[in-house]
DNA sequence: ACCGCCGCTTTGTGATCACATCAGGACATG
DNA sequence: CATGTCCTGATGTGATCACAAAGCGGCGGT
């Protein structure tokens, strides 16, 4: 039984953590969905112990919420909370983009365009999960160039908290156009236009979430 | 034995979490200090299970770092990381202060002054832990008025990551004056001077950490 | 005297179990 | 028919155990 106590990539609880984190961040779970220790343990064929650690970690990051009795569910955010998280994105992400700008060479811009194409395809297919995934990948790819791992980690935590909400949002309003501001971001990157980049990123980040409050 | 599975305040792992988090954030542990599961379990008279959950949670927040083999220690931050965390503080905290400003009435300012007095006493006594504690309490008390729990949570996470480093910093350079910018913050609050407040907070936040890079 | 190897101890990981609590439904009662 | 109560299954919590890996120190060889 005892498979492999520290296989680098292994470490059951870590594999669980990454899998669940990805599912939450990319909107594969609806808001309010319940996750049980034994359910997940059975699903992955492991015992409750590593499941508990993975869930605890996700709760600590705000990816999941825990009731007073310890029940774990995916969070249902209030409008105030959504607006606050959007405000945090609007604060952090222009800064990340600005720091990435000096290091954004052609190869990067080309990769961003590729990702953006995949994003447009997801929109055409009405595939909310693929849409969220490519959208976040677009941002992460850019921000990785900022050489600011702690700041990027915080941004990802915010994305994580918004995951289920974004799913609910994007499946509700079936969009048929890709996000308009991505083109503006790419243009500003090519032009080396720092203020324009900040504005485009801020607009892109604020845009989608604004629909909720309205 | 089985004491009380969900006593509200109880929940062993949660009590452990809060205790350890407080110790880390307030600089009661030196950077690089090792924490073992069995050691903590014995110290608190509990089993390894809740200890593991508490540590995992703290690692997830960046309060502690974990080696590849799972050993948990308090983090030793590189200079780049310290500067980045300072940059995040410089980004978030002026925003929090600005949001708190409209709601900062006299009672709040008076409480801040009281805290600041305690802070000055800690400086006089050369008590690094008390200094860090009162300093953070000063900021938290102000930011609580911002009505932005997610943003405050992120700021606290940053403080947490800086805890051991601040201890090392403040015990090394034995300061004999209280932080000068707290007075400027209080003055800006009284005057309702929003730009001045942002500047004062940014300066206060940047000041201490700048000594490290220099 | 220094270096490498081997064995012991420490430490983290995951499984399993006993227990308290909670949620939901059936049933009885007004 | 509505409402309160009780019971049962499900669920989280913490303890304990077996195991593998890592750290550490001593011993022997050169």
Q: What are its keywords?
A:
homodimer, 214 residues, mainly alpha, Arc Repressor Mutant, subunit A, Four Helix Bundle (Hemerythrin (Met), subunit A), 2 domains, three-stranded antiparallel beta sheet, 9 helices, 69% helix, 3% strand, disordered N terminus, DNA-binding, transcription regulation (chains A, B), Transcriptional regulator, GntR family (chains A, B), transcription (chains A, B), GntR_C (chains A, B)
Topology:
Two copies of one chain form a homodimer.
Chain A: H1 12-25, E1 34-35, H2 37-44, H3 48-60, E2 65-66, E3 72-73, H4 79-100, H5 106-124, H6 128-144, H7 149-172, H8 181-191, H9 194-213
Antiparallel strand pairs in A: 1-3, 2-3
The structure holds a DNA duplex (30 and 30 nucleotides).
Describe this structure in words.
Two copies of one chain form a homodimer. By secondary structure, chain A is mainly alpha-helical. Chain A has two domains: 12-73, Arc Repressor Mutant, subunit A; 79-213, Four Helix Bundle (Hemerythrin (Met), subunit A) (Up-down Bundle), CATH 1.20.120. Chain A is 69% helix and 3% strand. In chain A, strands 1-3-2 form a three-stranded antiparallel beta sheet. The longest helix of chain A is centred in the C-terminal third of the chain and has 24 residues, at 149-172. The radius of gyration of chain A is 18 Å and the shape is globular. In chain A, 41% of the residues are buried. Mean pLDDT of chain A is 91; it is low at 1-8. The structure holds a DNA duplex (30 and 30 nucleotides). Chains A, B: Pfam families: FCD (PF07729), GntR (PF00392). Chains A, B: This is Transcriptional regulator, GntR family. Chains A, B: Keywords: DNA-binding, Transcription, Transcription regulation.
